[in-house]
Amino acid sequence: MDNKFQKIRNDFPILKQKVNDEPLAYLDNAATSQKPQAVIDEIVRYYQNDNANTHRSVHTLGERATEEYEEARGKVQKFINAPESREIIFTKGTTDSLNLLAATYGETNINAGDEIVVSYMEHHSNLIPWQQLALRKHATLKYIELTADGQLDMDDASRKITDKTKIVAIAHVSNVLGVTNDIKKLAAITHQHNAVIIVDGAQAVPHQPVDVQALDVDFYAFSGHKMLGPMGIGVLYGKSKLLNAMPPYQYGGEMINFVEKYQSTWTDIPWKFEAGTQNVIGAIGLGKAIDYLTEIGMQNIADYEHELVSYALPKMLGIPGITVYGPHDSTVHNGVISFNLTNLHPHDLATALDMDGVAVRAGHHCAQPLMKYLGVVATARASFYFYNNRADVDQLLQAIQETKEFFKV
Amino acid sequence: MSLSGLNSLYREMILDHSEHPHHKHKLENSTNKVTLKNPTCGDVINLEINVSDEKITDIGFTGEGCTISQSSASMMTDAVLSKTITESLEMAQIFSDMVMGQKRSAEDLEKLGDAAILSSVMQFPARIKCATLCWWALRKSLGEEVDD
């Protein structure tokens, strides 16, 4: 297994470089993933051979582009086991998917006095659309608390989700705490109260098998660029019954049926939500990324990353003066490890690690309410993908040690 | 191993200022007061100054941030204390030009005192904001229009 994953690393040309004279240890995968040669080649191939606008052109290239674009939709459908391909809407990314929902489903279903339930671990993209919707509609925004070790407090979830709740918006995997939330259980609680559950899967889909039917979620959003695809492409899955009842998000080309002077009718899902020229190469590139991931196998990826976390987490916890946020038990911790060193600001830490070739994120990770909840201004964060290996972890540990010596902390 | 490269940014003087910042306290009855945040990293500076006869007669800052932002604020307070408003704003401009890599005369840089050592931050583009936050706070507290 390890051997196979060592070979995989060669598929990623960007990883072969040196940064500040050190081998690059790219540990900022929660921010974005690197791209395998197969995806890079696919983008070149499409632009060299098939580029045309989709769904409009009768000519051969137009046919090819349309076919490849819709084929990509089918790949996404299979990848997350959606019942129908028309339930897959291409967007710009997770943020766009969630804003779409707030502006359409939210706008038509939320009224004064209704409740929207989120958690303290939400990324701003799954928080601010709901916060602003609540403000517009005079609805109440409620936060599910966390347990002491940084997991979602399921007892509190049962208390916060009530008959007044119309929407539960929740992350599948936290981009800071590295925990996976029990979406299936949350969906069951949500449905008992006749509300819908909207899941931010940006940190889940790249790293583990996701089956939207098994989870029984109503909506599920994720981004292409965190799973080897290009930037600027994302996905919104929604149950067709719900999508059909929603008004369009944007108006313009290719989302209409008939346009008259004073009225128009909308075309069917998914195209109703895809106004204007789409990011066709983004979708096709994502399709290629899905082919690549499927060949390795999502369960294999999850297992491999888990092994890497089980190697890294205890070693990190053993560093004097380190604070690791989220659970300290490797069995419930994904490949996102947020940490701080006593008496050293995470930005100083990140600059120092970069000098040793180690790329980590430092900051609030677009989760300011969570930072406040944890009582910190910012943290450093190392996040893994399946092309990382123990050597990357060792390089991180060594760089942390050297940083401590340099700053005498 | 290339942490030695860090020496160019984290010079001894910068580490000293960060560990023992000058004028890091609140002022009583300050005439000008401003809070600025760096939203990308969460750094906050509360800057208080006393101005009388167009001169900065007292200055203090509180807040939190990285080594660079703390030492920069410390060195800035040393530099502008008992300077006129005009002189202080000129220094803010010199500092800004310096870290952005625009050439200023040696004579200009001398006006900054210790703070001139932060020219090294130029090589770390991601950290320039850390160094300039306090100077933007100074500009704002002296009535200049500043984008938060």
Automatic annotation (TrEMBL), chain A:
Species whose genome carries this gene: Companilactobacillus nantensis DSM 16982
Catalytic activity from the UniProt record: (sulfur carrier)-H + L-cysteine = (sulfur carrier)-SH + L-alanine
UniProt entry tagged with the keyword Transferase: yes
Needed co-factor(s): pyridoxal 5'-phosphate
One Pfam assignment: Aminotran_5
Family, per entry: Belongs to the class-V pyridoxal-phosphate-dependent aminotransferase family. Csd subfamily.
Positions of the Aminotransferase class V domain: 26-396
CDD domains xref list: SufS_like
Alphabetical GO biological process terms: cysteine metabolic process
Function as written in the Swiss-Prot or TrEMBL entry: Catalyzes the removal of elemental sulfur and selenium atoms from L-cysteine, L-cystine, L-selenocysteine, and L-selenocystine to produce L-alanine.
Record InterPro entries: Aminotrans_V_dom, Aminotrans_V_PyrdxlP_BS, Cys_dSase_SufS, Cysteine_dSase, PyrdxlP-dep_Trfase, PyrdxlP-dep_Trfase_major, PyrdxlP-dep_Trfase_small
Recorded GO MF terms: cysteine desulfurase activity; pyridoxal phosphate binding
Keywords: Pyridoxal phosphate, Transferase
Name this polypeptide is given: Cysteine desulfurase
Annotated EC: 2.8.1.7
